[in-house]
Amino acid sequence: MNSYMSMDRRSFLKQAARGGAGAMLLGATGTSLLAACGSTSKASTASPTTAAGSMSLGSASLQLDWIEDIEFAGSYIAKTNGLYSNAGLDVTLLAGGPSTAVEPIVVSGRALAGLSGPDITSAAINSGAKLTMIGAQMQKAPQAIMSLAKTPINDPQGMIGKKIGVQAGNLISFKAFLNIVKIPESSVDIVPVQFDPSPLAAGTVDGWYSFITNEPFLLAAKGVATKTWLLYDYGYRLYSGTYCVRTSSLSDPTERAQLVALMTGESLGWTKAFADPALAADLTVNVYGKANGLDIPTQTKELAAYQGIFETATTATHGLLWLDPSDVAANVATLAVVGIKSSASYFTDEILQEVYKGGSQAT
């Protein structure tokens, strides 16, 4: 599964859903989010105590948005090392895939929380879904421009007059980025491409719209050195890997306690993943993602790339997954350029405030 087609298709499909401002999302499960909003099902029912005698919060599910690979390593560690259960919650990790629409699954109550993006969740909220985002894994979205190390494009201005390969599903976000950096579309030769980044290696294009956590490692495995920079660092400020939950869960005592336990496990799991990449890669390749054709070296390198966009000055101060008001405002502004309405009211850090209790480490 670790191939150009499988992993790049993931990026394409995610961006296609975002570009459709929720239309793809609403039709993905055969029922609309508005219909699902009427569900009163619970994610779980709390039970009295755990085996250790501490308060048990029962069981709940976390819906992942893609197949099991290294981007969920923190969750694997939280599950395997008992970090969820130590907080009183039995968590089931639900694998995703190309056709997974996270928001309807959360709204219907089939999962307590789900991993998605602020663009997709905001579009769902605009369509009537009663959802709120309570944390963000990637403080910086992984979208990047990749070029060959021997002929690098060093910054946005370097794209002027160059051929940039952009997948159809990424056109909206790329054009929004050009708007943000004030580069006229006519100044860049946008070349329609598919999933395989080999045209960049062959010199057919000068640059490639990619994810910093993905395509550079695919080309590196073929001996092709690349240069990459994040769109985020030049004003395209979005989170990625945001946790969406039913807004009603925030006021339901049982589900709120479950969310605190879930996010405690997530924070501790990711802290451990970055401290012990060998464990993270082993669980990914040999346990959770065993059927997906992954390899230890590539997954380890990708984990290091994730660490660079999970950990920021904000998370050093407040803790992993934190939603800083200034960053939320930047997300709202960027989404407006993309053409998706969002609002600071779509986000809350109240669950993480309980997780960290005024510190920057979950306990």
CATH class of the largest domain: Alpha Beta
- The number of domains is 2
How many alpha or pi helices? 16
Say what the CATH topology of the largest domain is: D-Maltodextrin-Binding Protein, domain 2
The main β sheet shows up as: 5 strands, mixed
Backbone shape = globular
Number of strands: 10
Query: What's the arrangement of strands in the largest beta sheet?
Result: 2-1-3-10-4
Question: Any overview of this molecule?
Answer:
This protein is an alpha/beta fold and 363 residues long. 41% of the residues lie in helices and 15% in strands. The chain folds into 2 domains: 4-140 and 238-294 and 311-356, 3-Layer(aba) Sandwich (D-Maltodextrin-Binding Protein, domain 2), CATH 3.40.190; 143-234, D-Maltodextrin-Binding Protein, domain 2 (3-Layer(aba) Sandwich). The strands form 2 sheets. A 5-stranded mixed sheet has the order 2-1-3-10-4, with helices on both faces. Helix 4 (73-80) crosses helix 12 (277-288), helix 11 crosses helix 12 and helix 11 (253-275) crosses helix 16.
Could you give the topology of this structure?
Elements: H1 4-19, H2 23-27, H3 33-36, E1 59-63, H4 73-80, H5 83-86, E2 90-94, H6 102-107, E3 113-116, H7 118-126, E4 131-138, E5 143-148, E6 163-167, H8 171-180, E7 189-193, H9 198-202, E8 207-211, H10 215-220, E9 226-230, E10 240-246, H11 253-275, H12 277-288, H13 296-310, H14 313-318, H15 325-338, H16 350-356
Parallel strand pairs: 1-2, 1-3, 6-7, 6-8
Antiparallel strand pairs: 3-10, 4-10, 5-8, 5-9
